[in-house]
Specification:
By secondary structure, the chain is α/β, with parallel strands linked by helices. Helix content is about 35%, strand content about 15%.
């Protein structure tokens, strides 16, 4: 791959990169000024649609299309909820953006609220991210002082308030309706859909839920145009697939020499990420497997490491998808039974308990795997595990959300 010039991480190595003066010195808030000076909300939605920006939180749903689902004739209020809960194990790309370049995120949020006619935005931040919370709040305060938030932003008719909300320290709060329930002060039990949040979300009003990294892309699309955005990544080969375009933040951790967060266009292979950016597998060992995008996405075997990490690639080899693009590498010494037990223990612990198949099924799986781990497994345990895994989740239609999948 040719040398890549970072976009989302361009500012993070500057001193005081989290402050308004540094962000503005690098051209920050130019996109917002462009929007307020001559673009209608519909214009903004169409530009984002044309870019084929897909959500970076896991599902990969087209951002512009999601914005267009909000009712055009609703009297308001309309809300935006920004999902900064980031509880997927080994995922930390959102944290980097929030701590090191919060104004990039906030500019994207303001533009998104303008496009969707939202008058209030809530940033739902993972409870375990105190620095990110403080940096975002400080950046919001700077924006109010500079006239970039509040009434009649930059002399325009557009007004917006942004509020911070600390999460409930639960994985389930990352599910968009669980997040909304928690935001409202209730237990984070995901809602039955429909109605979807675009019709009935926060406080039973139309709501759009977007991820932190997704919003960080928006100012760059406005400034440079959708064609620039689509010049990076992997084009679609299927008319029903919107492609995998633009920059992406990849986390890499586990058994590598240089764990960290790296930016590159969508579509880098897992092998290149490990060898070129992660410094190779540690201690001179070989890779046994890798998680391509967070614990919930499944596994790539050593033979599948040339899989491109775009929205379509991992699914072609049996994974659920790209997920959060958080790659965890396991070397040849790892016991896959131990891995599976630890993964199942996490999901059993984080099940909200609302749906019986998930609550009981994940717990049963954990107990069975613990028995196998201690050498007391039975052949029929494998049949039971397969039966459980095929019977719980959204796909078989037995749960409200996808945690059990």
């Amino acid at each position: 791959m040719a040398e890549y010039e970072p976009v989302l991480l361009a500012n993070i190595h500057k001193a005081d990169s989290h402050t308004l003066p540094v962000y503005q010195a690098g051209g920050g808030y130019a996109a917002l000024k462009k929007v307020l000076a001559g673009m209608s909300p519909t214009d903004v939605v169409e530009v984002v649609k044309a870019s084929n920006l897909r959500g970076r939180g896991g599902a990969g749903f087209p951002c512009g299309m999601k914005w267009s689902f909000l009712p055009k004739d609703h009297p308001g209020p309309i809300y935006m909820c920004v999902n900064a809960d980031e509880s997927e194990p080994a995922t930390f790309n959102n944290r980097i953006l929030m701590e090191q370049d919060p104004h990039q995120v906030i500019e994207g949020i303001i533009i998104g609220c303008y496009a969707t006619r939202a008058s209030t935005a809530y940033i739902y931040v993972r409870y375990e991210y105190p620095t990110a919370y403080k940096r975002l709040q400080a950046a919001i305060d700077e924006c109010y002082a500079a006239g970039l938030l509040g009434k009649n932003i930059q002399g325009s008719p557009f007004s917006l308030d942004i509020f911070m909300h600390r999460g409930a320290a639960a994985y389930i709060c990352g599910e968009e309706t669980g997040l909304i329930e928690s935001l409202e002060g209730k237990r984070a039990w995901p809602r039955i859909k429909p109605p979807f949040p675009a019709i009935e979300g926060a406080f039973r009003k139309p709501t759009v839920v977007n991820n932190i990294e997704t919003m960080a892309n928006v100012p760059h699309i406005i400034n440079r145009g959708p064609d620039w955005f689509k010049s990076m990544g992997v084009p679609s080969t299927n008319p029903k697939d919107p492609g995998s375009y633009g920059p992406k933040l990849y986390c890499i951790s586990g058994h590598v020499n240089k764990p960290g967060c790296y930016e590159m266009p969508l579509g880098v292979t897992c092998r290149e990420l490990i060898e070129r950016y992660g410094g190779g597998v540690w201690k001179g060992r070989k890779a046994k497997a890798a998680i391509p995008g967070g614990l919930s996405m499944g596994l790539l075997t050593a033979k599948e490491l040339d899989t491109p990490l775009d929205f379509a690639g991992p699914g072609k080899v049996g994974c659920l998808g790209l997920g959060t693009a958080a790659v965890t590498v396991m070397d040849e010494t790892v016991s896959m039974v131990d891995y599976l037990y630890n993964a199942c223990r996490f999901f059993a612990h984080e099940s909200c308990g609302q749906c019986t198949p998930c609550r009981e099924g994940t717990s049963w799986s954990e107990r069975i795997l613990k028995r196998i781990k201690h050498g007391k497994g039975r052949l029929k345990d494998l049949e039971i595990l397969l039966s459980i895994s095929g019977s719980i989740g959204i796909m078989p239609g037995t749960t409200i959300c996808g945690l059990a999948d």
